[in-house]
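Q: Two folds, back to back.
A: First:
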Amino acid sequence: MHTKDGVRPAYAEIERWLRATLREELDRKRHVAELLFRRIGITFAVYGEGGDPERLIPFDIIPRIIARSEWERLSAGLRQRVRALNAFLADVYGKQEILRAGKVPTALVLENEGYRQEMAGIAPPGGVYTHVAGIDMVRTAPDEFYVLEDNCRTPSGVSYMLENREAMLRLFPRLCARHKVAPVGRYPEELLETLKAVAPARAGGAPCVVLLTPGPYNSAYYEHCFLADEMGVEVVEGADLFVQDLVVYMRTTAGPRRVDVIYRRIDDEYLDPQAFRPDSLVGVPGLMAAYRAGNVALANAPGAGIADDKAIYPYVPEMIRFYLGEAPLLANVPTFLCEREEDRKYVLSHLDTLVVKLAKGSGGYGMLIGPHATLAQRQEFHARILAKPGDYIAQPTLALSTCPTMVEQGIAPRHVDLRPFILSGREIRIIPGGLTRVALREGSLVVNSSQGGGTKDTWILEDEAPTEAPSQGQSQSRWVAG
């Protein structure tokens, strides 16, 4: 919200609102928001813990503001990046030109568990592999955004983006009205149009789209049901589908119905027991054969995970140059690959300053934040890296930007990131904004919901100035930090 020169223009009205609003009123609104989210059932499952794993994701009532000029720069870079990632997927499952050119190490791709040999030679409908991408961004200075990681498999969180906006409109209608905030409510419609656009060509009727979920025990099951309901499509489990003569059908009370597009929220290895794990009970036997025959579209395509592997991430700028002939518009965070001897030596001697991550990890698990780690923790990771260097990458500890956040002590700065969602079909669509995740613990850099993080509504301003003057007459409060 602040720079060294004062309040950023996009935040001017929010800053005035915070100073004019009593602490008690914001505490009451925060309590109402919690009741609202609990009543709706917006939860996130946390595995590996005793008791009930279902948790309410904390929602912060102070929005994160991004000016339109900033968003335009970001969205241009996001479009470019997703185009390159799709081109990379088409190439590594096809001619493998980038490997032959030596721009990406062949072994890093072909020996990676994210590379699915079953996809080799398959041209998916519409030529699109990652239909829904979530690109995690961090800000380190007023004009500096970095891509932290790419999510090309089954990125989650969009339902929270939509519910956060609904909550803000209900809790603070006057504040929302004073800003020209770009709407996000069209996302389900845009998603459905994207999915229909890649349906295999066949005569007769609109494409039949379904959302395939592994079931109610999945951590993002709420989102699966929410999105299916918003799109007006069926949410199905593996037992609801069957394959006959290389065509996928859905069981209905009116008899079998042909399925054209499956928005799958199941990991690759469980998707089809005949192609991947034979012990999978949540997949659809024969699905990959129907996909290979071109009779059904899968979004996202199996094998898309090779594009978001953390060991592949450092090569995305080179992908952009190789496939698009353009300079990258968004910068990567400098990354050390521990399988490289030179990088490994540097990482092992600088564990106190680096963030170390599992190359295949997600959700904030298996991570060391060097400056905040104990000596014993750094020694443990030193041994892990020596034992399996290919499993780890490391990055410098970034000075992540903070946003004003409502915590128990009042309003205080907390670190945030941003996950915009990019849709690829006949065209690339980006809903303005995304999911802002916030590290609620003081000083924490880990924003993941599974690690105690929360979320904020993200406002992309159509106008960088409020549409009317703020209301007057309320008492000034002195509890705003900073």
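A: Second:
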Amino acid sequence: MNTAATIAAAIRTGRTTATATAEAALADIAARNAATNAFTAVTAARARAEAAAVDAAIAEGRDPGPLAGVPYAVKNLFDLAGLTTLAGAKIERDRPPAAQDAFLVRQFQAAGGVCLGALNMDEYAYGFTTENAHFGDCRNPHDLARVAGGSSGGSAAAVAAGLVPLTLGSDTNGSIRVPASLCGIFGLKPTYGRLSRRGSYPFVASLDHLGPFARDVGDLALAYDVLQGRDPADPAQQDRPVEPVSARLGAGIEGLRIAVADDHFARNGHAEAFEAVAVLARALGATRRVTIPQAALGRAAAFLITMSEGANLHLADLRERAADFDPGTRDRFLAGALLPAAWLVQAQRVREAYRAAVMAVFQQVDVVLAPATPFVAPPIGQAMTEIDGQILPIRPNLGVYTQPISCIGLPVLAVPLADPGAAGAPQGMPIGVQLIAAPWREDVLFRVAAALERAGIAAAPAPPA
């Protein structure tokens, strides 16, 4: 699969058509999706209609948009008109189909994108592995015996496998950055409030973000530019101007203050996670180290807020249809429903104090490097691993480095190490690094990511045969 930018250029200049591109992608998904189980629904009729509309626009001399004929797919918590929004759950199968597309889907469609379907995820986005009891496990394209990460596992696996060049996912505690790291692709969690969440199934409204995945920085920037737009229907969205980043990818990193996170982000993982950060730091000439204060407390607050808000959303089904939940998800929701109100109030206080402390760090630096995941993708079904001499559960600890960042809404770009072997990654499995900035500074993240890509330090591995 070519890049989104290459596909759009070929279609716009007549070297191929959107229809031919869509048919080839649909055939590829039919032949190869069974390996990863990334797709839960393929919207072939919709894809053909959208591709035909792009071809008609070109034939009439109209601009079809920056994503002219580019195939994409979305996590199955995004509304697609005429399709039931599953959010990874058996319970949602009984709901009526969506009446209209999610806001971000409409942004892609208006830009000429062609939607090929919906993608696998953890039930109700509550997980980090996409081991789904209802729709099957999503498998890592680089080793089918390993997890793809989650909860946007299908979104990452589809891009990593080369089935589509762009996908959309969600990130509440790390659900874009974790699968991006484990599958070896680029993923963006924008600032909280930057992109509209209308038409997406919520998990934790005060923490939910939506964002894109891609195989290179240019495609990720292209997707991000298209997705921006004011939507008064999302009360969390901030009224800020659209800030395109594609034109700034060549700006370089001169003048940017880049540092490496220590303390919490230099513990709690395996050697490959820290060495991946070191590889990027050496390439960027980043020698400064900073402490993100009280990161463990911020993570603890995020855990409690997630449990409580998530459980509240599903109380009726927990009472009436408990047996229809994925057992692991159900137990966490039940625990959240029993949390004392005082704990939630205290968690919100801690979160606000933590946010203020972290904002002070960004008075001194522009970008912070931190691990994205504590280790490479574990085998499907493995429950425990050793970290710092302790045997700990894998699922919650995959978010050890992402959770403290998303709970205060900072923008993060996950970049894959071009040579995982340089970090000592087991079996050469992919691993990524978080680039973190102050709110609304996605532009500096793209500048750093583009510089790393140009230097050959950050890149997605080739899709496996």
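Q: And?
A: The chain is about 35% helix and 15% strand.
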